Amino acid sequence: MTKSKYICVQFSDMKTNSLFDNTEAAFQLKNDSQLERAYFLFRMIANEPLVRIGTAVTKFALNVNLPVEGLIRSTVFDHFCGGVNEDECMPVVDNLHKVGVRSVLDYSVEGKEGSDQLDATLNKILELTDFADTKKAMPFSVFKPTGLGRFELYQKVTENIELSDEESQEWKRLESRFDKASKAAYDANVTLLIDAEETWMQKAADDLCEQMMVKYNKERAVVFNTLQCYRWDRLDYLKEEHRKAKEGGYKIGYKIVRGAYLEKENERAEEKGYPSLMHKSKQETDNCFNKIMRYMLDNLDTIEIFIGTHNE
After folding, report:
1. 227: helix, coil or strand?
2. Which of 136, 190, 218, 281 is the most buried (most CB within 10 A)?
3. Does residue 108 surpass a pLDDT of 80?
4. What is the domain extent for residue 209?
5. What single string gives the DSSP state of each residue in 200-223?
6. What is the CATH number of the domain that holds 146?
7. Helix, strand, or coil here: 67?
8. What is the DSSP-derived secondary structure letter of residue 83?
9. Cα separation of the two ends of the chain
């Protein structure tokens, strides 16, 4: 597979209740062979030992350049991914749009280091934003903060560690990348979704998102940050950001998700000896998700919401 990986994430505008009770509607875009493949894949994925072995074998095969790409493309990749570039994703995007489902091309790059890599990621985000501007089926653009700046730099800023002169200049370039991505979304009338990452770098990214909201969210929420609801501090954080937005006369936008770094977060908290920011159970996370969603739905005059439920 190429390094430029795109995941075609689907969002439905359909108003149907109990969508998946109606299998004719739920699976209308799949033929019998695709459904059989999906059933087989999910049966395999449910087997944790097999997944661990398969992951290790696949990584080894790719590292030693064994000819396994065709197998990957015809099974896991084609089921979960839209393609490796814009043009390859479009048949999937167009088919989904016929039944009221919109998409976003997610250039899922994170953890980059050098300026050339970071600038290249920015250029791809700008390219995809411009591409989305021409497609009604794709009213979104998206990026990860560490696609535009070094993780360690975010961490230093989050922890209030003094930056060297060189790092200060690097931070200014990072701020400029955020601003260019946000302005491109504003100019194209496209919604920009900014992902959340690990807690020990997230405050710096949150502060940058807030700056972009102040600048570009006057009339509508162009820039959306992400709230990870497995964090027990996110509802209070949202309320404080809402207060500042009302005072400042701008709108805030948030994508709400449950979270993706649970094991890493708890392991680091135990290793470093500080209280974990994670809820102690799935149910507590779900309760937090619902409270945050309810708060946002009760304030739609000043908050715009993007609900990443990962369920029906």
Report:
1. strand
2. 190
3. no
4. 109-307
5. HHHHHHHHHHHHHHHHH-SSS--E
6. 3.20.20.220
7. coil
8. B
9. 30
